[in-house]
Amino acid sequence: MARWVRIQLHGVRMGVLLGACLCMCLLNGCSPGLNWRTLAMGRLTVLLPCKPDQAERNVVLAKQTLAMEMVGCEAEGAMFAISHVQAQNALVLEALLADWQASALAQMRAGPAAPSPAQTLGRHPLPMLLMNAQGQDASGKAVQARLAWVRDGLDLFHFALYSPHIHEDMAKPFFSEIQAP
User: Fold this and answer.
1) Among 74, 130, 137, 175, whose CB has the most other CB atoms within 10 angstroms?
2) What CATH number was assigned to the domain covering residues 37-176?
3) How many CA atoms lie within 13 A of 82 on its CB side?
4) With 80 as the cut, is the pLDDT of residue 79 above it?
C-alpha cells in the first residue's frame, strides 16, 4: 500500500510539473505579436502595435514642398505607418488629399480604390476617409492595404496598413483608436 501511495504522489508531482510546463508553453505561444502602445503625433493620440521608427523628409504634394513626419513599424508580417503634413492654408487641403491618395495607390501599383463613406473618430468630430486597396509591395508580391486620411485643421494625417492579408485584430485598433483632443 505504501508503494502505491508513493507512486501516486510521484504521479501527482509529475502531473503538476507537466501542467506547469504546458502552461508555460501556452503562455509563451500566446505572447502578443501586436504589442499596442500609445503615441502622440501632432494633436492626435494613436496606437501602434510595435516600437516605431521615425523619420522626416520633404515631399511634393499638390505642387508644394512640405515637411512630412513619418512613424512606422512592422509586426506579424504587416507594415503600420502614419504620416503627417501641415498645409500652408485651407485652400490647398483638398488638392493635397487628392494628390496624396493618388500617390499612395500608385506607390503600391494598385488599381482605383473606392473610398468608404466618411467616418468620424468615435466621439471626436474629425472626419476620416478610409479606403481598401490591393496591389504589390516593393518586391512585387501581392499586398492588401487599408488606408485612411484624417484632417485636423491644417494638419493632414495618413494611416496605412499593408499586409498580405489584413486581419481585423490588426486593423481595428490601428484605425478605431485614433484620438483627438
Assistant:
1) 175
2) 3.40.1000.10
3) 25
4) yes
Q: What is the pTM of this model?
A: 0.78
Exposure string over 61-80, b if 16+ CB within 10 A, otherwise e: beeeebebbbbbbebeebeb
Q: How many other β-carbons are positioned within 10 Å of the β-carbon of residue 49?
A: 22
- Largest interatomic CA distance in the chain: 91
Mean pLDDT, residues 89-105? 93
Sheet strands (E) in 16-113: 37-41, 44-48, 53-61, 64-75, 78-86
Cα separation of 180 and 124, whole Å?
Answer: 6
- Cα separation, 49 vs 38, whole angstroms: 9
d(CA 82, CA 158): 6
Give the dihedral sign, CA 80/126/106/168. Answer: positive
Residue with the larger pLDDT of the pair 16 and 127: 127
pLDDT, tens digit, 9 for 90 and up, residues 127-155: 788 899 999 988 999 999 999 999 999 99
User: Which amino acid belongs to residue 118?
Assistant: A
Cα R_g (the chain), whole angstroms: 23
